[in-house]
Amino acid sequence: MTQHQHDNHHETESVLSFDEKMIKLLEHWIKHNDDHAKTYRDWTKKSKDNDMAQIGSLLEDAIDMTAMITKKFEEALKLIVS
């Protein structure tokens, strides 16, 4: 019977401190939110161009809300890295 060799690369992430993990998460969430906001902006324009002004307006609200969430993530990140 041949024994299976497996180098355990799964431990890399567990070596990160809590602060490092939190930084990575917050950075990811900021980028993710920014990507969503870009999509919302694109669809806001498309909605308005297709006579759906009310929907465009609601999407603008979603963009504002997303920006507020991103700001909270950025504030949290500053608390860790400063």
Proportion of residues in helical segments: over 70%
Shape descriptor reads elongated
| Oligomeric category | single chain
Distance between the termini: 55 Å
- Radius of gyration over all CA atoms, rounded: 20 Å
Question: Which band does the percent of strand residues land in?
Answer: under 5%
Largest sheet: none
Uncertain runs: none
Order of helices and strands: HHH
- Counting helices, strands and paired strands, the structural category is mainly alpha
Count helical runs.
3
Number of strands: 0
What integer is the average pLDDT?
90
Describe the structure.
By secondary structure, this protein is mainly α. It has a domain at 26-81. The protein is 79% helix and 0% strand. It contains 3 helices and no strands. The chain has helices at residues 11-14, 18-49, 53-81. Helix 2 (18-49) runs antiparallel to helix 3 (53-81). The N and C termini lie far apart (55 Å). The mean pLDDT is 90.
What secondary-structure arrangement, pairings included, does this model have?
Blueprint: H1 11-14, H2 18-49, H3 53-81
Keywords:
82 residues, mainly alpha, 3 helices
Offer a quick outline of the entry.
The chain is mostly helical.
